[in-house]
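Need C-alpha cells for this chain, all 143 residues.
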Amino acid sequence: MSTNDQANAITTRSAPPGEVGQVVSALGNELKTSSVPRRRHDLTVHELDGEALIFDAKSADTHRLNMTACFIWRLCDGRHEPREIAETLTRHFDVDFDEALEHTERMLDEFTGRQLLAENELVPGAARSAGGDPAEDGQRGDR
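Here are the C-alpha cells for all 143 residues:
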C-alpha cells in the first residue's frame, strides 16, 4: 500500500440534477478503534475485479473504491473491529500491522465522513455477533 494508493482509495462523484459530477475531497472524521463498523444497508454496491462502485441514492453520490478500500469495505459487517480488519489486511497484503491499522483507520474515517457506514451500527465490540472472515469467504459488500 503506497501513499499514492491510500490517497486515491476512494473517489466520490456527486451528481446534482443537470450538473456534471465533481470529485469530493477527503474527509477526516475520527473513528475509535474499539467500534465495529457496519455498511449502510441501503447502498447499491457493484464489485468488479476487486474494486467497487457504491451508489448512495439519498445523496446521489457514487463512490469508487480501489482494491484495498474494497477489501476493508467487505469487512465492515458489524462483526470486525478495526484492529481485526488490520490483522486480516496483513494476511492478504504485503503490509505490517501498524501500516495496515493506519490504513484501516483512514478508510473507516473516509467511509464515515462520506456517510457510507450506518451511524447507529458503530457499537462496542462486545455487542457484535461471531462470524468468519468475509474476505476469505468471498462475501461481497452488496445487498
